[in-house]
Amino acid sequence: MSVKAVRGFSDILPSEIWRWRLLEERAREVLDGFGFSEMRIPILERMELFSRSIGEETDIVEKEMYTFADRNGDLITLRPEATASMARAYIEHKMYAFDPVAKLYFIGPMFRYERPQKGRYRQFHQIDVEVFGISQPMIDAEVMAILMHYLSTLGVNGCELQINSLGCPRCRLPYKEDLRTFLRDHSLQLCPDCRRRMEKNPLRAFDCKAQGCQEVMTDAPLVEDYLCRECADHFAGVKAYLESMDVPYRVNPRMVRGLDYYTRTTFEVIAEGLGAQNAVAAGGRYDHLIEELGGPGVPGIGFAIGMERLILLLPDQAHFYGPSLFIAALGEEAQREAFALSYRFNLAGVRSMIDYEGRSLKAQMRRANKFRARYVLIIGEDELRTGKAILRDMEKSKQQEVPFPSVFKEVISRLKGGSV
RNA sequence: GUGAGUGUAGCUCAGUGGUAGAGCGCUGGACUGUGGCUCCAGAUGUCGAGGGUUCAAAUCCCUUCACUCACCCCA
To answer: Relative to the CA of A186, which of A13, A95, A258, A371 has its CA 20 to 30 Å away?
Structure first.
């Protein structure tokens, strides 16, 4: 049995690569246009960066991280998300010294040890966007608007932006207590999972799929009723700014996030057709993360887009990137000519290919057709004798003789013109 | 970590105890120097792996691995 890729890790093949390029190119265009700067972070971090930021008791840290000891015995982790690293870099390079405001993004792979399923892999890719240093609700709305705009430039429709506010620690703690009390009072109607969640993370009961739990939760207390004045004002501001940009959204008071560092605004983009994992992007505000990681008291907000999930939503289209030119040669001398000529075309940036095996003309034409070459240049013994090659337009099925000295210019000018 | 489904040619799949198949794709030919359409021929399989039952196993039994989907959780 031959060696296979590690479970949950996959190859992106040439037939698929255009989707990835499209996502990345569009992301850079949109984000650069909105004043963001790309940066790159390492794949590995010290483990404690994630346990401190994401939260010691979260599933990600407890059971999903790829953590191992390096040769010094230090525990290092393959990053399960980007925000912690971005914050670490912001602090480590004292980016706040130049200006506390930093609008940053990063595109790359993340790693979580989970059972793979649709839209979920052990190595997956995110477009990660972070804004440090702004606490105004304006930036929350702006970041969401950018996200929705990006999706629409890709032709991805039918997504819904859902928003919520989790409040700050001051308003969340009393809420959690009340919710826990509520759940205890109804524990007989809850599923075993929710009875377990009740103590550790009562908010989780909101997105439980068991029918009994959903019925109970319709009467559960909601965070929005517990928001302090500042948090309530902030949330109202976010909504107003979204409306001022005509960005549609829905408040989902039951939306819960899995990472501990979130405060106030949280949001998700939900899409159909993703299977059980219906969130294509998600994010939120984290006003204490940077300070907790040893930086200044600077707030932050950001989101991540799941690229594999986004690709599932991309409108389907045929995409085949064939050569512009196929040079078909007959005979050894012609083959030497074709080889040198094709190299010249390649140097000039023309996607040109030849057959290396000395096949029949028919076979070479079939190959040219299979790879969807735009033009075929035929060089045989007759052509070498008369000094004229045959240039065939494969789409129009028309061909004409071209004298050797002008072959190069002729092909280039046809390709530039796009037709003839 | 839990549950269910599926593993047969490069791909999609048929084959329920008796000589491993089809379509598509691939290579070549008909057309001795012209692609697509048509027709013809050919190549390609440890039937996921290991063990067991049987005169005989792709098929039945056990074990194991992988993939897929779902749970948990998340992008």
So the answer is: A258
